[in-house]
Design a protein that fits this description.
The complex is a heterotrimer of chains A (about 325), B (about 325) and C (about 525). By secondary structure, chain A is mainly α. Chain A has helices at about 5-15, 20-30, 30-50, 55-80, 90-105, 110-130, 135-160, 170-175, 185-200, 205-215, 215-220, 225-250, 265-275, 285-305, 310-330; strands at about 175-180, 180-185. Chain A starts with a helix and ends with a helix. Chain B has helices spanning about 1-10, 15-25, 25-45, 50-75, 85-100, 105-135, 135-155, 165-170, 180-200, 200-210, 215-220, 225-250, 260-270, 285-300, 305-334, and strands spanning about 175, 175-180. In chain B, helix 4 (about 50-75) packs parallel to helix 9 (about 180-200) and helix 5 (about 85-100) packs antiparallel against helix 6 (about 105-135). The chains are: A mainly alpha (about 325), B mainly alpha (about 325), C alpha/beta (about 525). At the A-B interface, helix 7, helix 13 and helix 15 of A face helix 6, helix 7, helix 13 and helix 15 of B.
């Protein structure tokens, strides 16, 4: 763990005066306290079940966190513009289900292409609704998830005979672990994460996402065509969701029309924990990744402690509120 | 001063003028009412046998959603949003079902009162967290939706418990005339007794003020925080009513929230409540709930595969909101 | 803490008030003593601490230390209601009325008597206002007046007016000042906050001046006190009154056959703007003068691509153009600096991102950013505008003047061909104003064309080559800079011929203006 190294950085940055140091740390380097929290949870896990933290555990944890982290990328990007994408669950499930039903007849490549294109079309509709018709993103994405879910239910009836099959390469990608501790889905995740992290900092489009979320009027007056930014955003978000859905199908070795639905709220939670403001204009993807890891470790911890699913939900809720409250405290004073 | 006196004395004796004035200020609700009539006619055409029993069934089926919509309306008018409406309903439902099972009627009355108080408390916690942490409403209630859903599951893992016979009797069957369902009467009375007086009170003004312009409200001497807390507490109260009606209609407690949160948001948007806060009333959302239920009924009568209905509902939600924002954009341009 | 007995005749006695936000000291040691029956000006450049003091007196924030006495009693409000109970009612720069409620409900919220409000509305020149109208549907000026009437109806011991007259039409301003003036000799007092020296001179008895969080002086307001107030506000850096315009006027240099950078031909926008035509040449600063709401907002909206005209055409560099979006205007070289910084800035983002924003807006520029090139351009603009970058991480932490500079720097960084400035000096301190005038002159000297709307008439002679005057949506006059003294501009703005006698209700405004003018002449 990198906690120790980060800790030294933290002490160097802390200013001597009263409460300013911790606040600044939280505001300017939220990754450090988040990493400390993650390390703390890992320590608690090890204490709860000595010996659990090893290479194999690391691999399964990362493998489980990656699809969540990709879904949370959708939320991060949307939240930076002041939006939210609650359709990621339906879109991801759709991609997974299309893949599973088409792979036998059409082959995996065609199936993947169809899944991604279908997702992009769904994202395009969402983006037009939000960007051109100015529908509130919460409503638009909720509505889209109903539409997608409904269409998939109809499709399911039509495809009832063909059955579902997850192709081997997707299984390998979604659930395989190489060398005993490297989850194969890193092959997908590393490029995605690099693209998002670097793109947000160093691309014109990344700047515009922040600008639109911070002040749409200013962005427009400076020449930004906001609808273009939003349409591109929701298409990108849907494609990312589809990728996550395919990985989840590979991990679960099955696909249903509501496979990913239960990950929607955790994906928002991961972005919130990672320090992205739901009001727009502030945040980043690195924090979100750690947020997804924190949620995954908490889940493992509760499984180890033999807590029912219900307790996990309660705890997720408590974590979201407390972390969000901490962010608001440190950045709220203006 | 004569002009002043007319304006100051306010209420005109002419009822017709008042109605016209109301209709002009509430064009959306009037239009929605027209839509309701259209759907009633369509229903009658599709199913000439549709009559009193159909109305009874419809009334019972919409009762929980109608309460959820009222709960959502109150919070949204106050400038917030409550994503925990569904889980609070589940919590109220399981609590009542577990406590009421095989108990006396009198005890059942006590349970109802207790559950309503629980709703107030849970809502007040939602509101209190929003006010104290200053975290956006959507994040707080997203988090508490996990908490309340988890708590409901802890109380009752699968549907179970029971309902006092009287509470089932109170909402099932007709009242006098077979065309007047008790469920609708109960809804009307509860809304009239709780919401209408509040709406006209200073709290009502304060609620609209806080939703419309929080800073101006603060400067006008309104206690913004307490007003929000009361709004959330009231939402909790109506959500608890929704939960009780779930228990009453099903006879058992329902621990899984279903899509009531989503449906409540759909209903208020269709019902003309501005998500930006400060505008709208409860009548529109209640009519919207009925319209949405009729859409489902008509699709069924028309022989449409039930799997289509989800997609169609989503499309209606999106379509209505797009239409609404088009109207708004036209107005701005004019 | 030494116990200085409160002088009983003081209505408000605040001493040594301090407030820090984190490490930033907003108020160091502010004092404010207001006697009964006076109109007391509270003055200070941006960032001097005025707004913090106002917030403390209205219960918005609590001071870290200091004593505040109202009518001899300790005063520590926790909310505006508290402050009202203690005797202070405030009228803010933005009306504090609820947009979605009607006026009556707004009065009910604050428990104010509608009869009394109606009386004050009549006094303030709005006797026919329908109290059942919804606030959202009323014009801004009416809202300000309602706000003031409501505050007056509360009969506070102290009425605090924070930039109340900004953007109010001149006739209503007159009524407001007249009503405010009535407190003189009564038991009430008014604390009057304004950037307009003319109004201070016309209505105030004394002025308290803040600089860098401390009270630096209390001045009896007379005809000659303006200099002293300005000197106190600026401290050491008095550089006022210098006309920055170089003598080699661009107008003279303009070749007769030069193509205008921008030509408006019979521009019309609904009923707000009709048949407006003018030419803007490279190398000149063209002033636009108008009273509030004469169509200048629509003119700038059209030129900046925010709104489409209903008639007429725009010619840019000899090419007819029509803009559907600000991006179209920007591509044609027309860049826009709005008056409201909240409309222009990304408050949570850095100075650098704010300045670099226009670089990446085009679809073609969505890809990787050339960070080195960007840094160079941004740093160039920062040094041209002398932006204080100590708090560059988040623009919201900058002072108002520095924020305004960022909005201009954004365009300077990419090279300006035509700049549209809508009241760029509204609400900022004199030092920054001077820098902005200088910058506009420099831009013009470098060949750019500048269109400058200003609500402060004396800016015209400081920064412009000539001015057009809009009244009722039409251009009613074009005035060369040599003749553009305030009195002439004011007459033109009211659409009066120079030789005409002014109507009685305008005479006082002109007198006030001329008085101010006279006092300006007396300066070095």
């Amino acid at each position: 763990m990198t906690g120790g190294a980060d800790g030294t950085v933290a002490t160097r940055r802390v200013r001597p005066f009263a409460d300013g140091g911790l606040r600044r740390l939280f505001r300017e380097r939220p990754l450090i306290p988040l990493t400390i929290l993650l390390a703390f949870l890992v320590v608690v896990l090890e204490l709860a079940k000595p010996g659990i933290v090893n290479g194999g555990w690391l691999a399964t944890t990362i493998r489980a966190a990656i699809p969540l982290a990709i879904l949370a990328a959708c939320q991060t990007l949307a939240m930076l513009t002041g939006g939210i994408d609650l359709s990621v669950g339906a879109v991801a499930s759709m991609a997974a289900f299309l893949l599973a039903t088409l792979a036998t007849g059409q082959g995996p490549v065609v199936a993947i292409v169809v899944a991604l294109v279908a997702a992009a079309i769904a994202g395009l509709v969402t983006g037009i609704g939000v960007g051109v018709f100015k529908v509130h993103p919460l409503i638009m994405t909720l509505g889209m998830s109903l539409v997608v879910l409904g269409l998939m239910s109809v499709y399911q009836l039509l495809m009832v005979r063909s059955g579902t099959l997850i192709p081997d390469p997707i299984q390998w990608l979604g659930s395989g672990i190489s060398f005993g501790f490297v989850p194969n889905n890193l092959v997908v995740f590393v490029p995605v994460a690099l693209l998002v992290v670097i793109g947000l900092r160093r691309s014109g489009y990344g700047r515009l996402l922040f600008a639109v979320g911070d002040n749409p009027i200013a962005a427009r007056l400076a020449g930004t065509r906001i609808w273009q930014v939003l349409v591109a955003l929701y298409v990108l978000s849907a494609v990312l969701a589809a990728i996550a859905g395919i990985l989840i199908a590979g991990l679960a070795n099955t696909a249903t029309v509501s496979l990913v639905e239960q990950s929607v709220l955790p994906s928002v939670a991961a972005a919130v924990i990672g320090g992205t403001s739901i009001m727009g204009g502030r945040g980043g993807y690195a924090g979100t990744i750690i947020g997804a890891l924190i949620l995954t470790v908490v889940t493992t911890l509760l499984t180890v402690l033999e807590m029912p699913e219900a307790v996990r939900q309660v705890l997720f809720g408590v974590i979201i509120v407390s972390v969000a409250a901490a962010y608001t405290r440190v950045s709220g004073e203006a | 001063m004569s002009a002043g006196q007319i304006a100051v004395s306010g209420r005109r004796p002419d009822v017709a003028a008042a109605v016209v004035g109301w209709a002009r200020r509430n064009t959306w609700t009037v239009g929605l009412f027209g839509l309701l009539i259209v759907f009633i006619v369509v229903t009658k055409i599709l199913q000439p046998n549709y009559g009193a029993p159909g109305v009874q069934g419809l009334a019972i089926s919409i009762l929980p959603i109608a309460f959820a919509a009222v709960a959502q309306t109150i919070v949204v008018i106050g400038g917030g949003i409550d994503l925990s409406v569904g889980p609070v309903m589940a919590l109220a439902s399981v609590t009542s079902a577990v406590l009421m099972k095989d108990q006396s009627d009198l005890f059942g009355v006590g349970v109802v009162i207790g559950v309503l108080l629980l709703g107030l408390l849970v809502g007040a916690i939602n509101g209190g967290l929003v006010v104290v942490t200053k975290v956006p409403d959507i994040v707080v209630t997203l988090a508490t939706s996990f908490v309340w859903a988890g708590t409901a599951l802890l109380i009752l893992n699968t549907p179970g418990g029971g309902a006092s016979p009287w509470i089932m009797a109170i909402i099932t069957g007709p009242l006098g005339n077979p065309w007047i369902p008790k469920a609708l009467v109960v809804l009307a009375i509860l809304v009239a007794v709780v919401w209408v007086p509040l709406r006209r009170s200073r709290f009502g003004l304060a609620l609209y003020a806080v939703g419309s312009h929080p800073l101006a409200a603060f400067r006008s001497g309104i206690a913004v925080g307490p007003t929000k807390i009361v709004a959330y507490a009231l939402a909790g109260f109506f959500a608890a009513l929704g939960g009780l009606s779930l228990t009453a209609t099903g006879g058992v407690g329902a621990p899984v929230p279903g899509s009531y949160t989503l449906q409540s948001v759909a209903a208020i948007v269709l019902g003309g409540v501005s998500l930006a806060g400060g505008r709208g009333g409860v009548l529109g959302p209640i009519i919207a709930v009925i319209v949405l239920a009729l859409v489902r009924t008509d699709l069924f009568f028309a022989g449409v595969d039930p799997n289509w209905s989800t997609a169609i509902q989503g499309a209606i939600l999106i379509g209505v909101v797009m239409f609404g924002s088009l109207v708004a954009m036209r107005k701005v341009r004019a | 803490m030494d116990q200085t007995d409160a002088t009983p005749e003081l209505l408000l006695d605040a001493t040594d008030v301090a407030k820090a936000y984190g490490a930033v000291l907003a108020l160091r040691s502010a004092s404010l003593a207001v006697r009964p029956g006076e109109v007391h000006a509270l003055m200070g450049a941006n960032g001097a601490g005025k707004s913090t003091l106002v917030k403390i007196l209205t219960g918005g924030v609590r001071p870290d230390h200091g004593t505040i006495l109202v009518k001899g009693k300790p005063f520590a409000p926790r909310s505006p209601t508290d402050a009202r109970r203690g005797g202070i009612v405030s009228v803010y720069q933005e009306p504090s009325l609820i947009p979605d409620l009607d006026v009556r409900s707004n009065l009910r919220l604050t428990r104010t008597s509608p009869e009394s409000v109606r009386h004050w509305l009549a006094e303030l020149g709005l006797p026919d206002l329908d109290l059942t109208s919804v606030v959202r549907d009323l014009p801004l000026a009416a809202l300000r007046i309602i706000d003031l009437a409501r505050a007056l109806a509360m009969e506070p011991a102290i009425l605090m007016l924070d930039e109340m007259t900004a953007a109010l039409p001149a006739n209503l301003t007159e009524r407001v000042l007249e009503v405010i003036g009535r407190v003189k000799g009564s038991a009430q007092s008014v604390i009057f906050i304004s950037h307009r020296m003319i109004e201070i001179g016309a209505v105030c008895d004394r002025a308290t001046v803040l600089r860098e969080g401390s009270t630096v002086g209390v001045v009896e307001v007379t005809e000659r006190s303006e200099d002293r107030i300005v000197a106190l506000m600026l401290g050491d850096i008095v550089r006022r009154g210098t006309v920055v315009r170089s003598e080699a006027s661009a107008v003279a240099a303009r070749a007769a056959d030069a193509t205008p950078r921008l030509s408006a031909r019979n521009l019309t926008v609904g009923r707000e703007l009709s048949d407006v035509s003018f030419d803007l040449y490279p190398g000149e600063v063209l002033g636009v003068v108008a009273l509030e709401g004469q169509g200048q907002d629509e003119l700038f909206d059209v030129l900046s691509g925010s709104e489409r005209p209903t008639g007429g055409e725009l010619v840019v560099d000899g090419q007819p153009r029509s803009f559907r979006h600000p991006a179209d205007a920007i591509r044609a070289g027309l860049v826009y600096v709005p008056a409201d910084r909240a409309e222009a800035l990304l408050m949570q983002r850095s100075v650098r991102e704010n300045i670099a924003l226009p670089f990446t807006t085009r679809f073609g520029a969505w890809g990787p950013i050339d960070l080195r090139g960007e840094r160079k351009k941004v740093e160039g603009a920062i040094s041209t505008l002398q932006i204080d970058t100590r708090a560059a991480g988040e623009v919201r932490r900058l002072s108002g003047g520095n924020q305004q500079k960022v909005t201009i720097a954004r365009w300077v960084a990419g090279g300006v061909r035509t700049m549209l400035c809508f009241d760029p000096t509204r609400g900022i301190d004199i030092g920054t104003k001077q820098q902005i005038y200088q910058l506009l002159r420099d831009l013009a000297a470098a060949g750019a064309a500048v269109l400058l709307y200003t609500s402060e008439l004396k800016e015209v002679q400081l920064a412009c080559d000539r001015a057009i005057v809009i009244f009722g949506g039409r251009i009613v006059a074009e005035i060369a800079v040599a003749d553009a003294d305030e009195a002439t501009l004011l007459r033109a703005a009211y659409d009066l011929r120079p030789e005409e006698l002014m109507p009685e209700e305008l005479a006082s405004a002109a007198v006030a203006a001329e008085t101010a003018d006279a006092s300006m002449v007396g300066q070095p």
